[in-house]
Amino acid sequence: MEPNNETDDGYFVLLGFSDQPRVEFILFVVVLVSYLLTIVGNSVIILVSRLDAKLQTPMYFFLTNLSFLDLMFTTTLVPQLLWNLKGPAKTITWTGCVIQLYVFLTMGSTECVLLTIMAFDRYVAVCKPLNYTTIMHPSFCKALAGMAWVSGIGNSLIQVSITLQLPRCGRHHLDHFVCEVPAMVKLSCIDTHANEVQLFVATLVLILIPVSLILVSYGLIVQAVVKLKSAQAWRKVLGTCGSHLIVVSFFFGSSSVIYIKPQKYYGYVDGKFLTLFYGVFTPTLNPLIYTLRNKDVKGALRRLLRIDEKCLK
Questions:
Q1: Please, which residues have CB within 8 angstroms of residue 262's CB and are 6 or more apart in sequence?
Q2: Full-prediction pTM beyond 0.90?
Q3: How far apart are CA 14 and CA 92, in angstroms?
Q4: Rg over CA atoms, the chain
Q5: Could you read off the pLDDT of 42-101 as tens digits, one per residue?
Q6: Which residues pair with 12 in a beta bridge?
Q7: DSSP assigned state of 280
Q8: What gap in Å lies between CA 196 and CA 184, rounded to an integer?
């Protein structure tokens, strides 16, 4: 796809936080530290899940996919953001903007579906423990993960392709720090009501439906545990499902505010910070939540570290 012939010289200016120069330096440091933690944390989860035999389960297969998504998510966004925060140059090429659009939306859409699948996995683990290995067969898990990726890529291709066709009449100053569909729609010089409605409908499908399914899954889990009337069962469920619930709350909480009412938030400081939390800080928190609350991951890390110590000796 070629750049719109009305886009000045095939580039965009990401205004970002340029109206707050004192904030930019603080954000540069915070975003850099957050990005480094994201790389380390998610890479550790991927390696541990792949190398430790005790973590060769559906739950950690999906968690590995989630960590890979978070790595791709932030790597598409953060390097360009850091470049823009460190100096006066705020430009991004048309090609770079298109890549950001496609990858950012693909990762976000895929994560919506993947978090729903992870809730289903927890439902089967708690409510159907005797049939868990039969239901969550490796081939079925791969098919579910594939479905998440295909749905994310498909949504991205549709949304971005429609958005890139909008005429911009020479406008190339994007009042945001990332090329994202709602911000690009706002840049158009024609009536975009139809595009906003189409984006709203897509948001309902990719956010409200997954959230509803997750709530149903956890409603059934709570119903099953209540019948047991056991404090130990409650502790086990909280240990198994608590991390996922926290991640779901962070991810869907911030993304729903951004995408359901983009016309209200985009172009304002609040909207930019919400996107910053959703796109930069949430992928940093995910591995911390799973490692700090998960005894299996911490145990696997200790086993791997002991192996490394023995090898060094």
A1: 182, 183, 185, 186, 196, 199, 271
A2: no
A3: 7
A4: 21
A5: 998 898 888 877 788 898 899 999 999 999 989 988 988 888 888 777 888 888 889 999
A6: 92
A7: I
A8: 11
